[in-house]
Amino acid sequence: MGVLPRLVVFDLDYTLWPFWVDTHVTPPFRHASAGVVLDAGGRPVRLYPEVVAVLERLSSLGVPVAAASRTSETRGAAQLLELFGLQRFLQQTEIYPGAKTAHFHRLQQDTGIPFAQMLFFDDEPRNIQDVSNLGVTCVLVPAGMTLALLARGLEAFAGS
Ligand SMILES: [Mg+2]
């Protein structure tokens, strides 16, 4: 294992879960049976299958984690993080519309961690482009977050 980032940041929609929280599902969300989360229409909503394992891996490595999302459905997104049990992994969450560089400036100010010490995963090329320009190591997520993609991101960071 090479040099580790001091902060790993994840987008939410189509990075941790396979939908847009402001469009494809209907808040408020709730727990049904153990481990099942439903939207207001009674439809089950899920994380990508390896997300919890990815966050547990980072936790075991001692690397802090944050979430950065441009969704306008701020409350629904925060509720899902809670219901999915992800809040315990997240040192910080930045969830509001706007350019993703705004989220990263806030993360940098609040944590004191330089952009060059951060690793970011997102499914949208425009976010990858914008945040790369800040000096953050960025990895495009083509089909949801996986352990393999985490490993590739950590390698990219160590080699940067
Ligand atoms: Mg996304």
Automatic annotation (TrEMBL):
Coiled coil: none annotated. Its cofactor is Mg(2+). One of its GO terms (molecular function) is acid phosphatase activity. It catalyses: O-phospho-L-tyrosyl-[protein] + H2O = L-tyrosyl-[protein] + phosphate. Pfam families: Acid_PPase (PF12689). Keywords: Hydrolase, Magnesium, Metal-binding, Protein phosphatase. The keyword Metal-binding applies. InterPro entries: HAD-like_sf, HAD_sf, HAD_SF_ppase_IIIC, MDP-1_euk, MDP_1_eu_arc. Its EC number is 3.1.3.48. Magnesium-dependent phosphatase which may act as a tyrosine phosphatase. Belongs to the HAD-like hydrolase superfamily. This is Magnesium-dependent phosphatase 1. The gene is MDP1.
